[in-house]
Amino acid sequence: KPEVLSHQQIVF
Amino acid sequence: MMTKFVKTKEYEASQFDDEWVILNTDQFTATKVNEVGGFCWGLLDNEHTVDSIAEEVKQHFEIVEDTESFKHDIDQFLKELHRYGLVTNVS
Known about the structure:
The complex is a heterodimer. Chain A is mainly beta. Helices cover 0% and strands 50% of the residues of chain A. In chain B, 42% of the residues lie in helices and 30% in strands. Chain B contains three helices and six strands. In chain B, the strands form two sheets. Chain B has a three-stranded antiparallel sheet. In chain B, strands 2-3-4 form a three-stranded antiparallel sheet. In chain B, helix 2 (50-61) crosses helix 3. The radius of gyration of chain B is 13 Å and the shape is globular. Chain B starts with a strand and ends with a strand. Chain A binds chain B through residues 1-12, and chain B through 19, 23, 28-34, 36-37, 39-40, 57, 70, 73-74, 77, 80-81, 84.
């Protein structure tokens, strides 16, 4: 099953 | 007419074991997807419908899946990518 495991904002 | 999906942009994607990380360099986000998700992402260089992606995935992974629920999974996945700005609806 295609899944999004995580989604995060990148902070520089 | 069925909705088609395509990558918003050729964002960088890297594979780590069975997972893929897609970097959205416009919104500065990192989206991690599983192996099947990474395969779907690779297909989206070209326009695809949920049906056409489901067919490609089933062939590639030799899946014997109840078609409707499998399409539903892919539809949900694409909508999530769309929400994160990674794919765009076409037509």
